[in-house]
Write a structure and sequence with these properties.
The protein contains 15 helices and seven strands. It is α/β, with parallel strands linked by helices and 280 residues long. Among the domains are: 132 residues, P-loop containing nucleotide triphosphate hydrolases (Rossmann fold), CATH 3.40.50.300; 32 residues. The longest helix has 18 residues.
């Protein structure tokens, strides 16, 4: 009992020292802001999670849209054993070890295993292939999270055994709601124009918005604890633009269409977007 209390207290202390985005991470589906097409009442994904009947899935979307959050909500609600791997640091040996333990757990105790692999697109072909037999046989249920298009980055056999769920950038109104939670959590006040600017400029990335808010709070005067637009500007630095590989081709396509359509204003906008994002 003492050990349990000590562990719980240590966990709470660690959580209190964690970044704001981590501290505000939802712990239930009802706490999630945005992604209503996935977590609304009676939506397929919600029903599967609440019924603990989730099969292998891939969460695909831009950074800061809730992929890891959804996986962590599953971890908190499932009766199955939950394992976490990061494709950045895990190798084939780690994957096989997790699968081996999952098989032993299933055989000895009848307990099934969910394996969450963050940034699964970073796995090589051989690493992805190592998952196939256990996913197909049901030894593990896979949850993969990726910012990249799975039709290009995930092996077709693994993709065909998983359900794809696409997450969209958060709406400005959703980001504002999260920022209000952040203001309360940080015990500060903030000018509305500061929060509005932050919500507009984070490109639907909740993590970036909360991180910038935390920096702005640190920049605010020790006694006043009040966030202004000036501090938000300093925290953000350059205006945040989401610009992954898919975004690059979308912007280039929009630029070409605006030129073909003889729309110079639109052409200048998309050209500026490319230059601002680092294109030559």
């Amino acid at each position: 009992m003492k050990n349990d209390l000590f562990t719980a207290a240590a966990s709470e202390r660690l959580r209190a020292q964690a970044p704001l985005a981590f501290r505000l991470r939802p712990r239930s589906l009802d706490e999630i802001v945005g992604q209503r097409h996935l977590v609304a009442k009676n939506s397929p994904l919600r029903l599967l999670i609440e019924g603990d009947r989730l099969s292998s899935v891939i969460f695909w979307g831009p950074p800061g849209t809730g992929k890891t959050t959804l996986a962590e909500v599953v971890a908190l609600t499932t009766n199955r054993h939950f394992e976490r791997l990061s494709a950045v640091s895990a190798g084939v040996k780690d994957v096989r070890e997790v699968i081996e333990h999952a098989g032993e757990r299933l055989g000895q105790f009848g307990t099934r295993t969910i394996v969450f692999i963050d940034e699964i697109h970073r796995f090589s072909t051989s690493q992805q292939d190592a998952l196939l037999p256990s996913v197909e046989s049901g030894v593990i249920t896979l949850i993969g999270a990726t910012t990249e298009n799975p039709y290009f980055e995930i092996n077709a056999p693994l993709r065909s055994r998983s359900t794809l769920f696409r997450l969209e950038p958060l709406l400005v109104s959703d980001v504002k709601e999260l920022l209000q939670r952040g203001v309360v959590a940080e015990s500060v006040t903030a000018d509305q124009d500061a929060l509005d600017a932050l919500a507009q400029r984070c490109a639907g990335d909740a993590r970036q918005a909360l991180t910038a808010l935390e920096v702005a709070c640190a920049l605010s005067h020790e006694n006043a604890r009040h966030v202004t637009l000036e501090q938000v500007d300093a925290a953000l630095g350059v205006s945040a633009l989401r610009y992954g590989r898919d975004d690059h081709y979308d912007v280039v396509s929009a630029f070409i269409k605006s030129i073909r359509g003889s729309n110079p204003q639109a052409g200048l906008f998309w050209l500026a977007r490319m230059l601002e994002s680092g294109d030559d």
